[in-house]
Amino acid sequence: QVQLVESGGGLVQPGGSLRLSCAASGRTVSRYSMGWFRQAPGKEREFVARITWNGGSTSYADSVKGRFTISRDNAKNTVYLHMNSLKPEDTAIYYCNLNPPIREYWGQGTQVTVSS
After folding, report:
1. Residue 64 Cα distances to 22, 28, 49, 101, 116, angstroms
2. Are 53 and 33 in contact (CB under 8 A)?
3. pLDDT one-digit tens code per residue, 19-60
4. d(CA 11, CA 30)
5. Which helix (H) or strand (E) holds 10?
6. At residue 95, what are phi and psi to the nearest 5 degrees?
């Protein structure tokens, strides 16, 4: 069983930056592709970014491409999401999970609010 704990969210002004972290415990995730997902109020959870087990390949939703960067540190069993040029429409709860996601592994997420 894997426990995933997201952190690093907060309130930021439009154009600002944040770095989210996803710490895994229970077992290593170093051999799995990982992803970030988000859920805005009143909307379904959506894909944001994914990274292969060794970091060799990444992909992004069109809405964040060029602004967000996913990375990982397998020695720390941690995945990151670097978010730049944040927009109000990026406001959501952000979650990490394996990719494709495992239902039992969803954590509490971390709230990101972009507002002036």
Report:
1. 18, 28, 8, 19, 20
2. yes
3. 999 999 998 999 999 999 999 999 999 999 999 999 899 999
4. 30
5. strand 10-12
6. -125, 150
- Adjacency order of strands within the sheet including 78-83: 3-7, 18-25, 78-83, 68-73
Q: Residue 109's closest CA among 63, 45, 27, 59?
A: 45
Q: Do the beta carbons of residue 8 and residue 18 sit within 8 Å?
A: yes
Cα 9 from Cα 80, distance rounded (Å):
12
**46/15 Cα distance (integer angstroms):** 22
Interatomic CA distance for residues 45 and 111, integer angstroms:
13
Distance CA 88, CA 112 (A): 10
CA within 13 Å, CB half, 28: 8
| Start-to-end C-alpha separation, the chain | 40
